[in-house]
Amino acid sequence: MSGAALGLEIVFVFFLALLILHRYGDFKKQHRLVIVATLLAWYLCFLIVFILPLDVSTTIYNRCKQAANSSPSENNNITGSYSAAAPVTGKHPCFKPWSYIPDGIMPIFWRVVYWTSQFLTWILLPFMQSYARSGGFSITGKIKTALIENAIYYGTYLLIFGAFLIYVAVNPNLHLEWNQLQTIGIAAANTWGLFLLVLLLGYGLVEIPRSHWNGAKRGYLLMKTYFKAAKLMTEKADAEENLEDIMEEVRKVNESIKYNHPLRKCVDTILKKCPTEYQEKMGRNMDDYEDFDEKHNTYPSEKSLVKLHKQVIYSVQRHRRTQVQWRILLEQAFYLEDVAKNETSATRQFVHTFQPQEPENRFIQYFYSPTIEWYWECLLRPWFYRILAVVLAIFSVIVVWSECTFFSTKPVLSLFAVFIQLAERTYNYIYIEIACFLSIFFLSICVYSTVFRIRVFNYYYLASHHQTDAYSLLFSGMLFCRLTPPLCLNFLGLTHMDSTISHQDTQPTAYTSIMGSMKVLSFIADGFYIYYPMLVVILCIATYFSLGTRCLNLLGFQQFMGDNDMTSDLVDEGKELIRREKRKRQRQEEGENRRREWKERYGNNREESTRNRNFHTDPKESNYSETNTSRSVSKYTRSNNRTERDRIELLQDAEPLDFNAETFTDDPLESESGRLS
Q1: DSSP SS3 for 502
Q2: Distance in angstroms (rounded) separating the CA atoms of residues 258 and 113
Q3: Higher pLDDT, 592 or 112
Q4: Helix (H, G, I), strand (E, B), or coil: what is residue 130?
Q5: Residue partners of 41: CB distance under 8 A and separation at least 6
Q6: pTM, rounded to two decimals
Q7: Strands 92-93 and 460-461: what pairing?
Q8: Cβ neighbours of residue 314 under 8 Å, at least 6 residues apart?
Q9: Does a cis peptide bond (omega within 30 degrees of 0) precede residue 411?
């Protein structure tokens, strides 16, 4: 099994990162370089989280083996026979763990993973962000724009690195070497990441248990969905209006720049990014037979077309995202309303108001029957969420306590360190790896989930169902690469596996060894890394009392709060929007059912009359008079059939009228959409 666990986790983590990226990105429409760069960034960060427990168990075994080799006289006094592969220390043998990784592999592995992730987050991904957001029409133009936009960005970090370099050079007790220079760069990156890490961690430690606890409250979820519907409708209307304005500008440019203009290729590129209905509309109004005249007409410059191209990409992406999110939110609202109705059902079978638009899998239909769905949604799921919320809250309390006490080595107050040291005494590697994995996995969930939840206006927003733009995907990859290394160092500090924290002369983990000795920057190793994580207590208190949400409400950004008048108004507005959409869908389904019934009724009568006519007709009996008679009858029959067919088509095309509508129109759906707008 030597190295097999490492290989299995490498493959598993790759498919996990690919699956999550598929949920947020669009593999068909987005550039392949954007997908590959984001996948690589996510993959490396997830890989660090999954492989680090193996590094911890391997390090504990190496420490045991080192202690056994350093005290052979003690080992000789212990009775029993052990193999040469299992040296003895104290009362327990040093059995090799099942996931043991041979010496020399982990240091090389961590160097490749760490420096690749740092190259991505500090150099490649910022450049690709500007490249993806650029509106240039050529690769050279996009590269030029990206370099100009990142000049200030790179200059700022070079200035910070120079400040660290000057500090080390001025200090007479330090001699600058290449390893120390690496340590300065690593310390600068980890300091930046730890600063952001504590902010995100303080939010996630409280919000994740609370969100699961509130998930058991059906009324709370339904009210929040109504609130989201009101906000999303406003954003959707704004996106449609913005798209109309941009398309109007594109139409003017399309009419002014003719087919033989030098910038016509740029206009065609812009038109390809527009929605199909706008392309067809502009194509009908285009007259390519008119030549352009530079002397009498004013034409837009290439710079203005680049700006317009960038606006088109942004507006189309935003419009498509709001449309998809609106449909998904409607399904969620309808389902939560169905749950509220079925809670009082005496039959204990879940009944849906609307059938799913996509047919469900037969396997799901067989095992997830209406009865099982009722028991899960109306009875078991609330209790499951409550129990899960309590477990997550206990984990959060353990993390907060350990963050405030991990610097204490005598006595050991960090609960993570206590658990690992108890397992280390018995060399229970399975328990060590499970405890390490659950601990770092919970820390990662608290941090990464916050990255997926936060939204910086419309510049950064991770939207599921393939609606995340390239800029946000690349930005999330940057954040993950900057947050994961300090997250792992913080975890090793909580478990006292970092010698800088434990102050013990023991073999460090392979991950800690590539970070170098932080003694070069003592004020960071002994000050910032120790005391700054304690601020997580203040952040948790602020998150518990929703101070950030209240501040955003005061600034005019509506947030869901139960004791706020603005929230109540938006909930009522969202409830009315959902009610209108529900009526509209019900009328559509009723109209489709009526058309289906008419088609089945008259279609069957037509088939029966045709079969009876063919049955009573004898093709062998033919004379002149009968032929004339049959011709006249067939002519009459064809005339009747054509009349009947026209009548059936009219009945099929007829739309059922809604006499309950406020205004009588030919199309009740147009009347309803008019009231909705």
Answers
A1: helix
A2: 52
A3: 112
A4: helix
A5: 117, 120, 121, 125, 477, 478, 480, 481
A6: 0.81
A7: unpaired
A8: 469
A9: yes
**Residue 116: exposed, middle, or buried by beta-carbon count in 10 A (0-12, 13-18, 19+)?**
middle
Taking Cα atoms as reference points, which of 146, 182, 185, 191 lies closest to residue 474? 146
Reduce the DSSP state of residue 257 to 3 states and report it: coil
In this prediction, residue 656 carries a pLDDT of 44
Distance CA 200, CA 188 (A): 19
Which long-range contacts (C-beta less than 8 Å, at least 24 apart) are formed by 390-399? Answer: 390/209, 392/208, 392/209, 392/212, 392/442, 393/209, 395/442, 396/205, 396/206, 396/208, 396/209, 396/446, 396/540, 399/201, 399/205, 399/442, 399/443, 399/446, 399/494, 399/536
What pLDDT does 659 receive?
A: 38
Q: What is the pLDDT of residue 528?
A: 79
Closest C-alpha to 86, from 55, 101, 64: 64
517: nearest Cα among 187, 195, 188:
187
pLDDT digits (tens, 9 = 90+) for 56-96: 999 998 888 877 776 554 444 443 433 344 555 445 567 88
**Tell me, what's the pLDDT at 608?**
60
DSSP β-bridge partners for residue 460: 456
CA distance 367 to 49: 35
Pairing of strands 92-93, 455-456: unpaired
Burial class (CB in 10 A: 0-12, 13-18, 19+), 21: buried
Alpha-carbon radius of gyration of the chain: 34
Beta-bridge partners for 89: 92
Strands (DSSP E) found in 143-185: none
CA distances to 36, 132, 261, 575 from 141, in Å: 22, 12, 20, 48
Give bridge partners of residue 455 from the DSSP assignment. 461
CB 148 within 8 A of CB 487: no
CB atoms within 10 A of CB 196: 15
- What's the CA gap between 374 and 347, in Å, rounded? 10
Taking the C-alpha atoms of residue 453 and residue 106, their distance in angstroms, rounded to an integer, is 33
Cβ proximity of 510 and 106 under 8 Å? yes
Cα–Cα–Cα angle for 535, 536, 540, rounded to 5 degrees? 125
Domain boundaries, the chain: 1-69+106-219+364-566
SS3 label, residue 93? strand
3-state secondary structure of 46: helix
Beta carbons of 521 and 232 less than 8 angstroms apart: no
Look-up: residue for tokens 């317009």? 308
Tokens representing 28? 């068909």
Torsion, Cα 310 311 316 318, to 10 degrees, reads 110
- End-to-end Cα spacing for the chain: 65
Instruction: Locate 632 and state its tokens.
Output: 């006249």
Among the listed residues 472, 479, 521, 481, the one whose alpha carbon sits nearest the alpha carbon of residue 500 = 521
**461, containing H or E segment:** strand 460-461
Instruction: Classify residue 24 by its DSSP letter.
Output: H
Tell me, what's the pLDDT at 311? 93
Separation of alpha carbons 36 and 128, rounded Å: 11
**Cα–Cα distance for residue pair 407/413, rounded to 1 Å:** 8
Give the burial string for 569-582 (b: 16+ CB within 10 Å, else e). ebbebbbebbeebb
Residue 298 exposed, middle or buried by CB count within 10 Å (0-12, 13-18, 19+): exposed
Q: How far apart are CA 570 and CA 564, in angstroms?
A: 10
Placement of tokens 């045991």 in the chain? 64
∠ CA 48-124-478 to the nearest 5 degrees? 45
Q: Give the model's pLDDT for residue 77.
A: 45
pLDDT value for 293:
53
